[in-house]
Specification:
- The protein has a 6-stranded mixed beta sheet with strand order 6-5-4-1-9-10, with no helix packed on it.
- By secondary structure, the protein is mainly beta.
- The protein is built from 1 helix and 10 strands.
- The protein has one domain: Immunoglobulin-like (Sandwich), CATH 2.60.40.
Length: about 140
């Protein structure tokens, strides 16, 4: 009897535990407020813009040649304060950072845009005039 108890005990504690992890991906724009960040390249060099959606992942938004403009739609959940960009499947990808910098060196020369992170506050679309500088990229709110 003692051996059978030891056998059951050994089987229970030596078998791998299997846990199913469910990943719930929210999709669509229901309950979110849309806002647009517009970047005008008023410099002489091409700018590249990206958003970071995780510590290790970024989404290229595009290059802006001199004299051209990039429009990026973002979405905010007023309850949580989170900001999202949507992929082709309308998956909500949380945005941690949004920046533009000089092409081929955008992170090192970046201008980082402030995202609306306060809860319960409605986000507003903004337009920025950007250009390269000797030390990086400069952007100012366009009126």
């Amino acid at each position: 009897m003692r051996i059978s108890r030891l056998f059951i005990f050994a089987v229970i504690f030596s078998s791998p535990l299997v846990a199913q992890e469910t990943l719930h991906v929210e999709r669509g724009t229901q309950g979110l407020d849309k806002f647009v960040i517009t970047v005008d390249n008023q410099g002489t060099q091409t700018l590249s813009c990206e958003v970071a959606t995780a510590h290790w992942y970024s989404v290229a938004l595009g290059d802006i040649t001199p004299g051209h403009t990039l429009h990026t739609a973002l979405w905010k959940n007023r309850r949580s304060g989170e900001v999202f960009i949507l992929n082709q499947l309308q998956d909500r990808m949380p945005v941690q950072r949004f920046w533009c910098g000089q092409r081929d060196n955008s992170w090192q020369t970046r201008y980082q845009f402030m995202l609306p992170d306060r809860r319960r506050q409605r986000p507003y679309s903004r337009r920025f005039a950007c250009r390269e500088t000797t030390n990086g990229t400069e952007c100012r709110l366009a009126i």
